[in-house]
Amino acid sequence: MLLGLGENVTLLRPEMDHILQCIEGIGVVKAVTYNPYCETERCGVYRNFSKEDFTTLFLDEDIDLRIFTSRWKIALAAEEMGKESLQFYDVSGRAVHKIYLTDASYRQVYLGLIARFRDDRQAVPHIEKPVRKRMEERRDAEIDIEEFQKAWNNMQDTHDFFGLIRKFRLTRMQALRLAPPRRAMQVSLESFRRTIVQCSVTETPVMMFTANAGCVQINTGKLDRIDQDTSWLTISEASGGKVSFNEDAVHSVWHVVKPTVDGNVNSLELYDTEGELIVQFFGYRKPGIAELERWREALGSNLL
């Protein structure tokens, strides 16, 4: 993308939060988040900007994002094939998030944003060689498995899981493998497909989480269509959003059960060969509200 610098690409100053605070004024845009094997998109307005510690939040029915701007290093305004966008990359030049204008966007506000944040030095920024920092698994014998399982069973919120694996110094795969009985079960990709199809037929709202190191995008709603194009499976929402992922990259699928103050929360989690999360699926829920019974029924009837 930087090859078009000075032509159809404008380098912006990397004032990420200040840029993001201005996005709401552009109106309806399309939010797109990537990881190597999954892409999600959703149209809406970037409402309810807020900061919690090191996380930038947009909490809205359409645009629901958790952003870690410390990992965003490059900001661009670009035009490609007649589409105008704001694009954000990490220090290695990998795309973490893009925002595309739509027919309902206020283009003059977008142009004003570019003028405001345009970098005086329109030069290609330094891009570092990607470094894959992968945590090495410890031997199971070094882990207090009994205490780990006790801590899992005492979780009060699904977000406690991240602190749990950090505390016991586990990879996600090792945590799933050492989980308490009936808390993490490996299932087939075909059973995952059957579950998602049933959710589509029964109009069960689903939450789909797509993440990379710099951004988590959550698409929530009823599912409309499920399409297969070679190895890519695309799940389209009634709202117009969609999530696409490469099934050939899926090495394992897990049904994970986490306890919360509102009862058990069930997820389907797809991982690649290196144990990296590709995409997660939950039944629609909010704090203080129990998980949808239709989601549990879909899981129970298909994960056999």
TrEMBL record:
CDD domains per the UniProt record, alphabetical: HemS-like_C (cd16831)
InterPro entries: Heme_Transport_Util_sf (IPR053733), HemS/ChuX_dom (IPR007845)
Residue stretches making up the Haemin-degrading HemS/ChuX domain: 6-117, 170-299
Pfam family, one: HemS
Gene3D superfamilies hit by this protein: HemS/ChuS/ChuX like domains
Name of the molecule in the record: Hemin-degrading factor
